[in-house]
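Reopening this ticket.

The earlier resolution said the output was attached, but the attachment link was broken on my side. Pasting everything inline this time so it's all in one place.
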Amino acid sequence: MKERLHPVMLAGTGSDVGKSILATALCRIFKQDGYTPAPFKAQNMALNSFATPDGLEIGRAQAVQAEAAGVPCHTDMNPLLLKPQSDHTSQVVLNGRPIGNRDAYDYFRKEGRSELREAVYAAYDRLAARFNPVVMEGAGSLAEINLRDSDLVNVPMALHAGADILLVGDIDRGGVFASVYGSIMLLRPEERKYVKGILINKFRGDLRLFEEGRKMLEDLCGIPVLGVVPYYHDIHIEEEDSVALAAKSAAAQRGKVNVAVVLLRHISNFTDFGVLERDPRVHLFYSNNVDELAKADVIILPGTKSTLDDLYELRRNGVAQAVLRARREGASVLGICGGYQMMGVQIRDPHHVEGSIEAMPGLGLLPMTTAMLPGKVTRQVHFTLSDGTGGPMEGYEIHMGETLPEEGSGYAPLNRLEDGQPDGCIVDEKCMGSYIHGILDNPAFIDKLLAPHVEKLTEAAAAFDYHAFKEEQYDRLADHVRRYVDIPLLYKILSEER
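Inline output:
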C-alpha cells in the first residue's frame, strides 16, 4: 500500500494561469506512480459541464481530471458549480443539482455562506477518505483579499484540508515576479506557511535565461521553485473555457468534409466537438459569419445555456437564415441539446425558466415543439441509432425542457435509449437533432453524419479513436510536466511530517 500523501492544491496568481492543466498532469502522474488520486475544486464557474455516472452535474474540468486519474467522476470532486446566465447572474448547482439562480452580489456576500461552506467541506472529507492524494484546484487568484471572508475555494479550503499549496504563476502574460511575490505577501502570516512551492507556467524560449530569475524568486519568497514549465502546442487536453473557439475559424478546405459549429453567445459543452477536431476526414471550424457558414458541408447548432436568447440573436444576425439556406442547398444540419431545441417549430417558456420571452418560433427544420420546464435532466445514457446501425453508443444529457413531436408530423426518432425511450428527431440523412452530449464521441454516429458527403474526401481515412487519443494526451502531458518539475521534491513535500 502506498504511503499517505498530503493533499496538494494548485493555486494561482490569477485566472487562466494553467491551474487546471497542471492539476490534470498531477492526477495522471500520481496514477502512473501507483497512487489513487482524485481531483477536487470546491467551486467552479463554467458553462462546460458533465453528467456523472449517477446522473448529476459537475464542471467539465474535474471530469477531465478524473479521467486522467483513471477514476469515475463524482459530484464530490466539484460540489459547487456556477453556470453564468448573464453578466450578473448564475445558476447555482450544489452537489450536482440546481438550487436556483443567484445574483453575483448576493452570492458573494458573507451572509448565508455557512451552508455552502459546510457542503464543500463535507464533499472534500468524503473524497479524502477514499483517495490518496486529493489534487485540489483553487479559483482565480490566491490573494483576493476583498473576498477573503466569503472565499470557499482557495486558502480557507486548503486550511480545512491541510493541503500543501503550490502557487502557479503565468510568465507568458508578464509580471510574474510581482504576481508571485505579491500573492504570497498578501496572505496572512499563518497562511503563508501552507505555500510550499512555486510553479512558473507557460514559459517561452531558452530556460537557461530564467535560471537567475528562478533563484531570485526563491530568495524573495523563501519557497522553492519546483519547476518552470514551457508552453506547448502539441498536447491536446479538453479546454474548459470557450474563449479560444473563435480562433478556430478558418476557410473551407478541399478534400475534407467542412463542418461548421455555429458560435453561439452562450455556447456550452463545446467539448462535444473534440473528436471532430481530430478526425482526419474533417475540417472543423467555429463561426457565426454567414459567408463562412455558406461554405460548410455540415452545420452543427451546439448546446447553449440560454436557448431563447441565442435563437433571438441568430435571427438578428442573419445566421438563422444562413442555416436554412444552407439546408436548402444540400448541407447537413445537426442540432445538439439547445441546438436541437432551436431546430424545432417552436420553443415555449411558460414558467420563465430562461427569462421574459414566453415563446419564439424555431427554425422549423424538425417537427418538434419544446417547452422549457423548471426541472433539469442530468444523466448518462446508452443508446442505439433508430435505424439499427452502428451498435451500442453512450453519451450524457444536461438540459432544461421537454421536446415533443407535432401531432400528425410523422415523427421519427434519431436514437433509442436502452430503456426504449426515443431521443431526438431525424427528417432525413442531412437533418437531425438530439439531446445527447457526447454523441459525436461515437465513431458510428460520425460515420452517419459524414456519409452524405464522403464523395468530397480525397483519400480514405479510418474513424478516429478518441478514447485512445485522450489517454495518449494525458500521458504526454504527464511526461512534459515530469521533464520540467522536480517531482521527487514534490513527493518529499507531500510526505513530510507536519
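Reporter confirms the inline version is readable. Residues 8-236+472-495 form a domain with the Rossmann fold fold (CATH 3.40.50.300). The first strand starts at residue 8 and ends at 12.
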